[in-house]
Write a structure and sequence with these properties.
Elements: E1 11-14, E2 35-39, E3 55-61, E4 72-73, E5 82-83, E6 96-107, E7 110-114, E8 123-129, H1 132-135, E9 154-157, H2 159-168, H3 176-184, E10 196-198, E11 204-208, E12 211-219, E13 224-233, H4 237-242, H5 248-258
Parallel strand pairs: 9-13
Antiparallel strand pairs: 1-2, 1-8, 2-7, 3-6, 3-8, 4-5, 6-7, 10-11, 11-12, 12-13
């Protein structure tokens, strides 16, 4: 089949997430994140009767996903590649995604939503009401994701890291503590999508924007935990000494206080 189909967006998403690494992987991990869906004027009458539904499906275009023809991808929760149709990867033959969000209110052409996991500017292709009787199947098998039934990893913060995060709170434009917890709750395994790597000395490091998070992992039969040891700047010493990027001022102050 070689037909080509043309789709046009019906609106755009407005959200606090401007970078791919900032957005949660699923809407359930974006609890209470507020945003808007701005519908184009020609679709005004199509919004009739939408008020009253608690949740909506947003069908959208992964406009920031790199083009890919790969049949297999490496998902964040897998240690090996999986068939793309068995994942929710944005790197698909047709980069279409879907997300269930909570509808709070409608003001004209603007839908105010929560539990939003989409990037700012995401093109919206369609909206559909979420119907629990038709869309929820709690007993459905989770396929390869069911292979590890244990709970997510517990993320703890050692006092040095906790003090550093308290100092950074309000000084950076991202909730570092929440980002660290979300990224590491899936596990400590080095993974390019989650920007986790093993350093030359064997320690583990997570990158969050231009900050580096050093941590250790402990795994027992009934419990799995990750301890955040400290936060470090991601800038090199030379850049800290001579660089002119405005962001360096905060990093210099951080290094001056914590070393």
């Amino acid at each position: 089949m070689t037909e080509t189909y043309l789709v046009r967006p019906i609106g755009l998403v407005r959200s606090p997430f401007t970078e791919k690494v900032e957005a949660p992987r699923q809407a359930v991990a974006a609890e209470s994140v507020a945003g808007r869906v701005e519908i184009f004027a020609e679709h005004e009458h199509a919004l009739a009767d939408l008020q009253g539904f608690d949740r909506l499906w947003i069908l959208f275009w992964f406009h920031r996903a790199a083009p890919s023809a790969s049949a297999k991808v490496l998902p964040p929760r897998s240690d090996r590649k999986r068939g793309v149709f068995a994942t929710r990867s944005p790197h698909r033959p047709n980069p279409i995604g879907m997300s269930a969000v909570r509808l709070e209110k409608i003001e004209g052409l603007v839908l105010h939503v929560r539990d939003l996991d989409l990037l700012d500017g995401t093109p919206v292709l369609d909206l559909k009401p979420y119907l629990a009787y038709a869309d929820a199947f709690p007993d459905a098998s989770a396929g390869w994701l069911a292979a590890d039934p244990r709970p997510v990893w517990e993320v703890r913060f050692a006092e040095p890291a906790d003090a550093q995060l308290r100092w950074l709170d309000g000084r950076v434009d991202v909730d570092l503590r929440a980002r660290i917890t979300d990224a590491l709750a899936l596990g400590p395994q080095p993974h390019p999508y989650r920007r986790i790597k093993r350093r030359a000395d064997g320690s583990l490091e997570l990158a969050v924007k231009d900050w580096r998070v050093h941590f250790e992992a402990t795994e027992a039969t009934e419990a799995r935990s990750i301890t955040i040891l400290r936060i470090a700047t991601g800038w090199k010493s030379k850049a800290l000494a001579t660089g002119t990027d405005p962001a360096l001022e905060l990093h210099r102050a951080f290094v001056g206080r914590f070393g």
